[in-house]
Design a protein that fits this description.
Layout lengths: L1 E3 L2 H13 L4 E6 L5 H13 L2 E6 L19 H10 L4 E3 L3 H4 L18 H4 L3 H16 L3 E5 L3 H13 L5 E5 L19 H6 L2 H14 L5 H15 L3 E9 L12 E10 L2 E10 L1
Parallel strand pairs: 1-4, 2-3, 2-5, 3-4, 5-6
Antiparallel strand pairs: 7-8, 8-9
Helix pairs in contact: 6-7, 9-10
Pantoate binds next to strand 2 and helix 6.
């Protein structure tokens, strides 16, 4: 397994791979790999000749006062895990390599970024779409893999790939969960033991919503109120948002119709967790 830090070296290796006609599966990450990442990597491993991952904590997608400095990092462990799943190449660039002085170009997907996490994290998706575009240009993957846990990110990136005619297939795989249902996330490592116990309620509240929809409930406000009360009655967490949207424009719905995204963001202490479920009505 190759570990590359420099763009010039990466370009050379990708050129050679392309000349051999090998397909590339790509999993972009911010490192501190967990089972959610490993699931994406194992799937990419099976579906492509070459598995490339990136490990880069992208400063551009962190807002002021967010956890850029504290974001967990462990490149040694990540390299071991990547090796174990059969990764061929890890691209782990330093920040100056991705954003040299006087860097000035950004990618912005409009409309879909105006709700949910786009409200409380202004500029976040611009950071994600910019770095992912750069990574796609460098790695030139045939297929790129993302997790459904970051539902809005996946929809925004799909839109970007489509609107900018990017030559790759974007694959979204189901959320990997802990035994009690908590969606896997590098940020779970911040949780105190009490918050960690309480955080299991997020998925339970989404499942409850899913059951309400299956039982015929179509009024979004009724479903959102039930999720709110479940979280408030069982945790000390602060709700950032609980929203139900369509999956095309990520616009809040009053009445559920078609494919709907039930999404939430909740703060346990300083740790903001997100989760979601898709329902078809
Ligand atoms: O989902 C993530 O870990 C990040 O947003 C991504 C896609 C690696 C871009 O930095």
């Amino acid at each position: 397994m190759q570990v590359i830090h420099q763009i010039s070296e990466l370009k050379k290796t990708i050129k050679e791979t392309k000349e051999k006609g090998l397909s590339i599966g790509f999993v972009p990450t911010m490192g501190f790999l967990h089972e959610g990442h490993l699931f994406l990597m194992r799937t990419a491993r099976k579906e492509n000749d070459l598995l490339v991952i990136s490990i880069f904590v992208n400063p551009l997608q962190f807002g002021e006062g967010e956890d850029l400095e504290e974001y967990p990092r462990d490149l040694t462990k990540d390299r071991e895990l990547a090796y174990e799943v059969g990764c061929d190449l890890v691209f782990a660039p330093p920040v100056q390599e991705m954003y040299p002085p006087r860097y000035a170009t950004f990618v912005d997907v409009e409309r879909l970024t105006g709700n949910l996490c786009g409200v409380t994290r202004p500029g976040h998706f611009r950071g994600v779409t910019t770095v992912v575009t750069k990574l796609f240009n460098l790695v030139q993957p045939d297929r790129a893999y993302f997790g459904q846990k970051d539902a809005q990110q996946a929809l925004v990136l799909k839109k970007m790939v489509n609107d900018l005619n990017m030559n790759l297939e974007l694959i979204v795989l189901p959320t990997v969960r802990e035994e009690d249902g908590l969606a896997m996330s590098s940020r779970n490592s911040y949780l105190s033991p009490q918050n960690r116990r309480e955080a299991a309620i997020l998925y339970r509240s989404l499942q409850q919503a899913q059951e309400m929809v299956a039982g015929g409930e179509r009024d979004a406000s009724v479903i959102k109120e039930t999720i709110t009360m479940t979280i408030k009655n069982n945790t000390s967490a602060l709700i950032d948002y609980i929203e139900i949207t369509d999956t095309r424009n990520i616009k809040p719905l009053a009445i559920l119709e078609g494919e709907c995204l039930i999404a939430l963001a909740v703060k346990f202490g300083e740790t903001r967790l997100i989760d979601n479920l898709l329902v078809e009505v």
